[in-house]
Design goal:
Strand order of the largest sheet: 1-2-7-4-3
Number of domains: 1
CATH architecture: Orthogonal Bundle
CATH superfamily: Cytochrome P450
Helix content: 40-55%
Largest sheet: 5 strands, mixed
Length: about 450
């Protein structure tokens, strides 16, 4: 379907959405501050007041919010090709992560995804795990010596080091320090309210971080093309398509910055939630520790991963309660309808894992940490195929989900064999849920050696 950029940019008028329940909040900023301060509270309030379909105004434009498993399926599976991921994400991420896989549509998305797929196949994952294990063990030894320990920055450092080695072939500490700062600024900028660089310092830092990362990668492309490295960066520099085409420099840079963000920020978020949950629920911590001890070895092989049933349940429950992405954005490119409400073409449409993961319709006692809800005997996640969507769904299902699961298990296995995870009895983690879920205080934690 053809559509002018001006029409897509403007979106539908307020009158075109008047038939949908909801409100637009404060002038200019709408409900942006409410959403950014606490996406879960925003979603609970909106769903309670208006139901599964509502109109709103946040993050710079009028939107239709879908807060149901059926809405998730309608948008993410997209059987009728109603929606664009590119136009949905571009207003928020377009200058920060231009042409990342998440911002591509149709044949272009399928082609680029196919090119990246070999980096996440079983053979590659086996190699990654073998290379990750020594670095994880070394990091845990270093953690043992720390007295004022905060889990989030420690695990973020580790996941960045792993991603930098596996995907970029970078090992120097000084390079990692700079890359880490740039990624922090880049991700935080996606939640900036003021998007004029001269006025919005957060947004300006994000753009500067992006520019630093681009320069860092661009300077290394010629050597990677001439070398024989096995990291993703080197492979992309040497890759040739079936038609003899090579990745352009800009394509390599765009893909790598996006993959690096996805490979370490989202896994960091999941591991932080799991560590907190295990500290709060020592019975589950001991259950996973015993499971780890039963293997009788310090680190895992790839064939061991499928046997970690209890860890699977804990990971899924952590992602249910605190999915790394609280919302997924699309734009309707043609008129469509859901739950009896017409959605005009060019409407920005959002679905919200953070609320559908907690709807009592699908989940028993949804505010309770209860990993056994994912057991075969209960299988609450199978009550609707799109009630649990931490990795998205449809054509844009997260390409690196198996890498994320492997990395979580690879870290938890030696961690639980080495330490008991403890927080004070009255401690409650203060979550910042946007742009990616993380603790505001870094999650202070005692690692008691076993």
């Amino acid at each position: 379907m053809s559509a002018s950029s001006s029409l897509i940019g403007a979106g539908p008028s307020a009158a075109a959405l008047a038939h949908i329940p909801g409100d637009y909040g404060a002038p200019l900023i709408g409900q942006t501050l409410h959403f950014l301060r606490d996406p879960l509270a925003y979603c609970r309030d909106t769903e309670a007041r208006f139901g599964p379909v509502s109109r709103s105004h946040f993050l710079f434009r009028r939107r239709v919010s879908l807060m149901s498993a059926e809405g998730n399926e309608f948008v993410l599976l997209d059987r009728d090709q109603n929606f664009s991921a590119h136009h949905g994400w571009h207003p928020i991420l377009g200058r920060l992560f231009p042409n990342g896989l998440m911002l591509r549509d149709g044949d272009d998305h399928r082609y680029q995804r196919r090119l990246l797929q070999p980096a996440f196949r079983k053979e590659a994952l086996q190699d990654y795990l073998a290379r990750m294990n020594p670095r994880i063990v070394a990091a845990l030894k270093q953690w043992r010596t720390q007295t004022d320990f905060h889990f989030y920055p420690a695990i973020k450092r580790l996941t960045l080091e792993l991603a930098a080695e596996l995907f970029l072939g970078v090992e120097l500490q000084s390079e990692m320090d700079r890359v880490n700062r740039d990624f922090v600024d880049l991700v935080e900028a996606s939640a900036a309210v003021i998007r004029v660089p001269l006025l919005g310092r957060r947004y300006a830092r994000g753009l500067a971080g992006r520019a630093h990362l681009e320069q860092f990668l661009r300077e290394r492309i010629p050597a990677r093309r001439a070398g024989n490295g096995s990291d993703l960066f080197s492979q992309m520099c040497r890759a040739v398509s079936e038609t003899g085409d090579r990745y352009r420099d800009d394509e390599i840079i765009d893909h790598l910055i996006f993959v690096m963000m996805a490979a370490h920020d989202t896994t960091t978020s999941a591991l932080t939630t799991i560590a907190y949950a295990l500290a709060r629920h020592p019975e589950w911590q001991q259950r996973l520790r015993q499971q780890a001890a039963d293997f009788g070895k310090a680190t895992l092989d790839h064939d061991d991963l499928a046997l970690l049933t209890s860890t699977d349940w804990v990971l899924r429950e952590a992602l249910r309660l605190y999915p790394p992405l609280t919302t997924i954005m699309r734009m309707a490119l043609k008129d469509c309808e859901i739950h009896g409400y017409a959605i005009p073409a060019f409407t920005s449409v959002n679905v919200f894992p953070i609320i559908t993961h907690r709807l009592p319709r699908w989940w028993n006692e949804p505010e309770t940490f209860d990993p056994e809800r994912f057991s075969p005997a209960r299988a609450e996640h199978k009550r609707h195929p799109f009630a649990w969507i931490p990795f998205g769904g449809g054509a844009h299902m997260c390409l690196g989900l198996h890498f994320a699961e492997m990395q979580v298990k690879a870290v938890l296995h030696p961690l639980l064999l080495a330490f008991a995870l403890e927080t004070p009895a009255d401690y409650r983690i203060p979550y910042q849920l946007a742009p990616i879920a993380k603790p505001k205080d870094g999650l202070p934690m005692r690692l008691r050696p076993l």
